[in-house]
Amino acid sequence: MKFKQTILGVALATMLVLPVSAADVLSVNGENLWKQAQARVVDNGTTYVSLRAVTGMLAPKAQVAWESGEARVRGEGVDLTAKPGEQWMIVNDRALYIPGGIKAGDGVTLVPIRTLAKALGGEVAWTRETGVVLTPGIGKPGPAPYTEEDLYWMARIISAESRGEPLLGKLAVGTVVLNRVASEEFPDNIHDVIFDRKWGVQFTPVANGTVYMDPTEESVLAAKLVLDGARAAGDSLYFLAPDLTDNHWIMENQSYVTTIGCHWFYR
């Protein structure tokens, strides 16, 4: 537990197409399928592809449809939803983080190729020489890389500590917990980090009992995202809401990282 240049159009104004180069290569089984995948590179360097086209490459027996404002993939062990504008993709019991969000344009739902490959059991590699190399896998996601107990407690501490905070703030709280799990200074599992009393109660919800309350729906989502690799607030080990506490020991003794919502994060 020590746990990718021309404006494409109005609807995709932030998307860029690079000159022909290795950047315009999406190699699948040795064949360049860049155009077939309707691939394009967004301004933050992320390669986005057509959900429908690439799903056909990775899970050819699955059915892709548009229902109630979102793309849905069903069949062959896959139950996937992707809604333009959201920062996550749901696949079976997992939630996969997409910082730049799911995009749509010209009737195409676009998602990062790395995230889609992860969702469908494939792998992606990239170099300047080869471009993007997509290796098909089992055509469906593997099991979630965390236990039900980890999800149970992570969702509750996120919910209790960050009600009213944005999704990014919830991810940051979860990141602090996981950073502590990875640190030699704290216990090596989520439950014990939350209930750690080595230097006194570490999280206010443990003291006031709110950690035992049912978590909000978004907190459960945030817990799944962070447990599946999403991160925020860097290597922070501490956070506080300065306006809500008289104890500013963290501010006086630790290094400031960032502020998200009402929380200040430190390492």
What is the alpha-carbon Rg in Å?
A: 21 Å
Mean pLDDT: 91
CATH class of the largest domain: Alpha Beta
Estimated helix fraction: 25-40%
Largest sheet: 5 strands, antiparallel
Question: How is this structure best described in words?
Answer:
- There is one protein chain.
- This protein is an alpha+beta fold and 267 residues long.
- It is 27% helix and 25% strand.
- It has eight helices and 17 strands.
- The chain has helices at residues 51-58, 113-119, 148-162, 167-182, 190-194, 204-208, 217-227, 249-253; strands spanning 15-16, 26-28, 31-32, 40-42, 47-50, 63-67, 70-75, 78-82, 88-91, 94-97, 103-105, 108-112, 123-127, 131-135, 238-240, 256-260, 263-266.
- The protein has a five-stranded antiparallel sheet. A five-stranded antiparallel sheet has the order 6-7-8-9-10. Strands 3-2-14-13 form a four-stranded mixed sheet.
- Strand 2 (26-28) and strand 3 (31-32) form a beta hairpin.
- Helix 3 crosses helix 4.
- The protein is elongated and about 60 Å long.
How would you summarize what this structure contains?
By secondary structure, this protein is an alpha+beta fold. The chain folds into two domains: 121 residues, Copper amine oxidase-like, N-terminal domain (Copper Amine Oxidase, Chain A, domain 1); 119 residues, Cell wall hydrolase SleB, domain 1 (Arc Repressor Mutant, subunit A). It is built from eight helices and 17 strands.
